[in-house]
Amino acid sequence: MAKIIAVTNQKGGVGKTTVCAGICGCLSAMGKSVLAIDLDPQGNLSFSLGAESEDAYTIYNVFKGEVDLYDVIRHTESCDVVCSNILLSGAELELTSIGREHILKDQLDQLAADYDYVVIDTPPALSILTINAYTAANWLVIPMIPEILSLQGLSQLKETIFAVKKYFNNSLEVRGILLNQYNPRLILTKEVEELSSLVAEQLDTDVFETKILKSVTLAEAPAHGKTIIDYAPRSKSAAEFKDLTCEILGIEKPKRVEKKLGRGRPRKYPRPEDIIN
Q1: pTM, full prediction
Q2: Strand, helix or coil at 183?
Q3: Residue 104 CA to chain centroid, in angstroms?
Q4: How far is the first Cα of the chain from the last one, in angstroms, to the nearest whole number?
Q5: Closest listed residue to residue 38, CA positions, set 165, 110, 111, 133
Q6: Angle (CA) 85 67 45, round 5°
Q7: How are beta strands 34-38 and 80-82 bridged, if at all?
Q8: What would the pLDDT profile of 44-67 be if each residue is shown by its tens digit?
Q9: pLDDT computed for residue 239 by the predictor
Q10: How high is the pLDDT of residue 194?
Q11: CB–CB of 133/101 below 8 Å?
Q12: Is 9 helix (H, G, I), strand (E, B) or coil?
């Protein structure tokens, strides 16, 4: 059975899509079969993973009941992808039938044996699409940036999570809160980090030990249609996402040997004490 991970926050600009792509890349690098589902009408995850959605069925057609989820899966170098486009923005008004909260879950139940993990990118709003993601998910990963407004959005998100657990999915677990675009040199960062720990307690979870720092390399990867693992596997950002993925899965982080600083160029002539007679 596939483990379903939804990356969520009702506030935009916190890096949900980047986190989704990074997790997908790490899971694929571990040899896991991964399905990425783009539930954001902007279609950023589809673009970031190199999956084109033009002239093809998308998740919108699945919600409309025109096709099954299996029919819209696209194959990429990193993982399989279910694409999205701007038509999905009308789902809130168009989906009015009873049981609309379970559409995605019912579709994923048919594919549960085909994948090890399903990673869902949710829209920056508490819509029927977000409710579908929560109803289908086993785990929630909540990225936030260390700013006050992001923290406020986290508090509002809490009420929706509790409502979904009560009415649709009582096994839903908040796996952790992720501090994204982290800058440890700012005083505000430390203050928000402390406050986010209090919110984490209310959600019966923790703030992930791993932090994702701001990175130009991380911002470049989507332009190439690749995850950070494929685009820059030796980068610091790739190492951070590997650690994060291990935390999410509850397994030991990879051990790394710190590189020691050099002492300059080697001496042209040996010192007398280095000469062995």
Answers
A1: 0.88
A2: coil
A3: 18
A4: 68
A5: 133
A6: 30
A7: parallel
A8: 999 999 987 677 899 999 999 999
A9: 95
A10: 84
A11: no
A12: coil
139 SS3 class: strand
Cβ proximity of 219 and 231 under 8 Å: no
Answer left, alpha or beta for residue 253, where phi above 0 means left and psi between -120 and 50 means alpha.
beta
Instruction: Provide the 10 A C-beta neighbour count for residue 92.
Output: 14
Distance CA 20, CA 217 (A): 16
Q: What is the residue type of 15?
A: G
CB 10 within 8 A of CB 153: yes
The first and second tokens of residue 30, run together, are: 């571990």
CA–CA dist 233, 236 (Å, integer)? 9
Contacts with 177 (C-beta within 8 Å, 6 or more apart), sequence order: 142, 143, 144, 154, 196, 199, 200, 203, 205, 206, 207, 208
| 59 in Cβ contact with 14 (< 8 Å) | no
Characterize the bridge pairing of strands 73-75 and 173-182: unpaired
